[in-house]
Amino acid sequence: MFKTRSAATEACRAGKIKIDGDPVKASLKISPGTEIHISRPGFVVILEVVHTHSKRVGPPVARKAYQDHSPEQIKPREVGLPVRERGTGRPTKRERRQLEALRGYIKER
To answer: What is the pLDDT of residues 16-53, one digit of tens each?
Structure first.
């Protein structure tokens, strides 16, 4: 899902995580059977909570607490996106916008 708790909190604040179609706060208590929709660039992840833990656990244990019901889609990392060559410096504003468009980022206002 998310590599850090901070990243998960930011996604909640940005409205990228929804339960029953409503954006959620990071402090929301969830229960087994809850379906979570996580918006990612180019695809949506749908997870169902199987059981919860009373304490924070590591990733291998946490993966057993939910089931992934996401539709089969090509994820951006699997698509062979072009990589910028080393030593070419920072991308210009125009190049950055072209890269974001290619990767599927949508600027939300």
So the answer is: 999 988 999 989 999 999 999 999 877 889 999 999 99
Q: What is the DSSP letter of 59?
A: H
Domain tally for the chain? 1
Residue 109 lies in a domain: no
Q: Is 22 part of any domain?
A: yes
Residue 89 located in a structural domain: yes
Residue-level pLDDT at 82: 65
Give exposure, 71-107, as e/b (b: 16+ Cβ within 10 Å): eeeeeeeeeeeeeeeeeeeeeeeeeeeeeeeeeeeee
Amino acid 6: pLDDT: 92
| Cα 10 to Cα 62, 68, 90, 104, 108, distances in angstroms | 20, 21, 26, 19, 15
Query: pTM for the whole thing?
Result: 0.61
